[in-house]
What does this fold into?
Amino acid sequence: MQKIIGLAVLIAIPVVGSVLSAQSGQSANGQALVQTERPDWAYGIPSGPRPPRPADNGTLFSLPDTDRTFTATQIRGRSPADWYPGDHPTPMPDIVANGRTAEEGAVVRACALCHYPNGQGRPENASVAGLPVSYFIQQMDDFRNDLRNSSEPRKNNARTMTQIAKNMTDEEIAAAAEYFGAQPWRPWVRVVETDTVFKSYTLGGIYLPVDCEIDKFTECEDSATTSDTEPIGLRIIETPENIEHAEIHRNPRSGWIAYVPVGAIEKGKALAEAGQCSVCHGPGLKGLGPLPGIAGRTASYLMRALYDMQQGTREGLWSDLMKPVLADLSTEEMLYLVAYAASLDPQ
It folds into this structure.
C-alpha cells in the first residue's frame, strides 16, 4: 500500500517549494503559512492570551425552531443546553447530559458539552455520532491506558479526555457508546478551495477572523468574507458557518466551513484511491463493520488523528492498523487526504 501511495504522489502532487514559494512567512496568528512538519493549523494553539468571555448578564438566548432559552452560564454549564431534544434519542444517559461533580464522585464533564447532545462535535474535539459501539469503547480504553495522547503537548483537551475516561465506569462508557452510536452522522463540514483566507486568531482551537472579537460575536455574521486576507499556504482553516451560533449558543445544528488549498480535494481523492482507504473505511469512506466512517468529519480532527498516529503518540488497537499506511506519508499528503475526506457526504 505504501508503494502505491508513493507512486500516486510522484505523479499527481507538485513539490511544495515550487508551488508555495511565494507564500513563505507567517500568518496573522503566528503560524507558518507552509507547514511541512507538524501541522500546527490542526491543533489551533493560540499565539498568546485572549480576553475572557463576557460575564453572564442574565440574557436569555434563543435559536430558530425551538422554544427553549438559556443563559450563557446554562449553555456552558454542568448540564449544557439541549436546544433540540427531538434531534437525538431521549433520555440522554445521565453521564452524557450531566456528567458528575466532585461531590458525587470522580469528576466527569458532561459529554454533551463538548461533543453536543447529537454527537456532532466541533473541530477542536471529535465527532462521536455514528461511531461503532466497539470502536468508541476501544478509544475510551486507549485513553484510560494512556495510549491516546497528542503530539502537541499544549493540546489540553487531549489530557482532559484521558482523565474523563479514567473517571468513567465501564457501564457509563457503554451507555455513552450506545447513545452516540445510535445517532446518524450528518453533513457537518462545507469544504471550500481557495488561494486566500481571512486573517485569523484562535479561540479554544477555533479559527475566527481577526476583526471578530470575543465581545462582538453577535456582529460577525459576514466577517469571514469581509476581513483582510492572507495566502492559505499549506493549511486548512476551519471556522463556524455562523460564529454567533457556534461560539455563543453552541448550536448543534450549525456546522463548519473548511477552507483548503486549491486542488486539495482532487489530490486527496487520488491518494485515497491509490492507498485503498475504502478497504477498511468502506465505500465512500462511510465506515465498515467496527471501523469508523471518516467521510464528512472535520479536517482538523482527522489531521490530528493521522499525524498523532504517525508520530506514535496515539497508539492502541486500531492505531497499529494505520501505522504502516501512514509511515511514508508527508504532512502535505495527509492534508490532501483529510480535505478530501471532509468533503464527502457521510450519508
Notes: The radius of gyration is 20 Å. Strands lie at 189-194, 196-198, 200-203, 206-209, 229-231, 237-240, 256-261.
